[in-house]
Amino acid sequence: MKINHLTAAEENFMKLFWKLNSFYLKDIMEQHPEPKPHQNTVSTYLKILVEKGYLSTVKEGRIFKYSVLVPFEEYKRFLLKELSLNFFNNSGKEILELLLNEKLISQDDLKDYFDLKIEIKPVKTEEPKFEYAEEILNPKKEKKSKGKDKDKDKKKKKKKD
Length: 161
Prior knowledge:
The chain is mostly helical. The chain is built from 8 helices and 3 strands, in the order H-E-H-H-E-E-H-H-H-H-H.
């Protein structure tokens, strides 16, 4: 689903609509904080937001029931991607550096986040081999040298002397 940009006024109305999720014009008029806009103004914004694909309508008798089509979380992702693309060279690292420099996020926040996200899986290990213990408990029997080897050793000793 393609998300379109919203003006500041449209965004303000959508903040209320996201809270209501499904509503009638009278609900908006009741819920909107003071100063309340004129009903015609609200109707105009409703029409625009339907055209932009943010709201859908169902006719119930003589009135319309409105429902939100674009969830708030999806709109936030859209805004963050636009911000990253247009102002941060599409770099999450640059965004993170700004958040840290402006103290909008702390090192501890990051540490807590990554501590929660990292899964430590147990490492499968083989049973330890005790080579030295094996040698002591089960010594290898040395092969007996043939007489030729003994003769060579004797000859070497004589040459040294």
